[in-house]
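Figure 3 (text version): structure tokens given as input.
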């Protein structure tokens, strides 16, 4: 190997970044059709020709009223449904048509979010070295990551990875993987893109299928993108959140609590009504383990900032209760739930975006310092809990 002696250890050291991975840009996007939550039961039962199922409509109305959601955005509008009437009946083989639509729409939505993240980051898209794409709508190869790379004009040497069917922890998982890539590859710039459209799992109401009624009440469509990299190059790159520690925990004996399955009629899912309790019983242990790993004891949860996946209003209530959080601590999560619903893995990226805006606004209006340390958490099938300890560089405008 040439004249200079180099050990594998030296090479390894030179390959790694010096500092922690950080979020360098965030972007989000939604499809244009906006549905008001208080009108949704009428809308859904009308477009699925199911007005006669009055008990189910009553149930959907009750859940919508308690969901903490004001509005959601969806790709599947009335016109698209009229062109694909089979989508209302999950017994019909509509998967091909759904996959056709999703294969175009999912990367296009991701591209809109990614363009915003790249613009905030400030460097050309061709400087992106890695791409991690997460979606529950993927059922083809080459898949949405390949299409997104083309839409954005990424380099042909970009290293691509797809995460499929991770559901609501897809965003958390992608960000942890991005952290590992950025810290282990000096100079790496990782684009994380999550894009979810509920079209793959849309069907009409059926007696005995209450999971669908819950899903109809809470899920929405959206895409989120984040640029992650270590050792930011100033003055162009400005770290929004540094990623201090990340872990994944699986709650034992909960395989059946949240599940998703692709069938001939689209994706079906099950969400146990025990999910808020199961998540609530396990979050504190995940947090304590994370801070123990950092060698920090006795953390007061109210001294942190919080970016929690708003899977449902009851999940946020439960977490707030078990951790004794002040009223405003989950405000970013509640706001995203209210304005967009649960967009599965994408949602936590919207929460990070909302959180940094709130922090900047607070600093501008009151001059009050927001907490320096915080936590991001996301939950999904498994039940899997993703935990990440975040740090905001002090004195940076916009943090
Ligand atoms: C997909 C992924 O990977 C990850 C995810 O995020 S999965 C989704 C996670 N989200 C959840 O699990 C939802 C959490 N639950 C909630 O937010 C709330 O329970 C809720 C908004 C659904 C209802 O609010 P609430 O305060 O519990 O009201 P409550 O009056 O007790 O219940 C209202 C109705 O919801 C129903 N309900 C609650 N959880 C349900 C569930 N998991 N499935 C079906 N119905 C459910 C109740 O049975 C009740 O029905 P009735 O009115 O007929 O009695």
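Below: residues designed for each position.
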């Amino acid at each position: 190997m040439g004249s200079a002696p180099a050990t594998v250890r030296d090479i390894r050291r030179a390959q790694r970044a010096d500092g922690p991975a950080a979020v360098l840009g965030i972007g989000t996007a939604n499809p244009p059709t906006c549905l008001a939550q208080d009108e949704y039961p009428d809308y859904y039962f009308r477009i699925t020709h199911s007005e006669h199922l009055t008990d189910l409509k009553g149930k959907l109305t009750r859940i919508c009223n308690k969901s903490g959601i004001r509005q959601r955005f969806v790709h599947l509008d009335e016109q698209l449904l009229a062109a694909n009437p089979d989508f209302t009946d999950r017994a019909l083989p509509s998967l091909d048509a759904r996959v056709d639509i999703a294969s175009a729409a999912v990367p296009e939505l991701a591209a809109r979010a990614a363009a915003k993240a790249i613009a905030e980051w400030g460097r050309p898209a061709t400087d992106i070295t890695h791409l991690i794409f997460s979606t529950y709508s993927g059922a083809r190869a080459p898949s949405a990551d390949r299409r997104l790379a083309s839409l954005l004009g990424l380099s042909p040497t970009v290293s691509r990875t797809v995460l499929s069917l991770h559901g609501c922890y897809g965003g958390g998982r992608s960000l942890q993987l991005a952290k590992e890539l950025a810290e282990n590859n000096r100079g790496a710039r990782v684009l994380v893109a999550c894009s979810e459209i509920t079209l793959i799992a849309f069907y009409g109401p059926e007696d005995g299928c209450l999971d669908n009624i819950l899903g109809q009440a809470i899920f929405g469509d959206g895409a989120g993108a984040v640029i992650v990299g270590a050792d930011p190059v100033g003055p162009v790159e400005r770290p929004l959140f540094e990623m201090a520690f990340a872990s994944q925990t699986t709650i034992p004996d909960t395989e059946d609590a949240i599940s998703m399955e692709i069938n001939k009629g689209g994706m079906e899912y099950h969400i146990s009504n025990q999910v808020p309790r199961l998540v609530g019983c396990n979050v504190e242990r995940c947090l304590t383990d994370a801070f123990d790993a950092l060698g920090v004891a006795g953390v007061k949860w109210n001294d942190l900032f919080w970016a929690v996946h708003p899977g449902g209003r009851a999940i946020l209530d439960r977490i707030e209760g078990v951790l004794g959080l002040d009223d405003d601590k989950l405000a970013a999560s509640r706001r995203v739930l209210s304005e967009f619903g649960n967009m599965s893995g994408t949602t936590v990226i919207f929460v990070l975006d909302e959180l940094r805006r709130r922090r900047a606004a607070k600093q501008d209006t009151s001059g009050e310092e927001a907490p320096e340390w915080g936590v991001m958490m996301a939950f999904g099938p498994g039940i899997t809990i993703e935990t990440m300890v975040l740090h905001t560089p002090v004195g940076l405008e916009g943090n």
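The chain has a mean pLDDT of 95.
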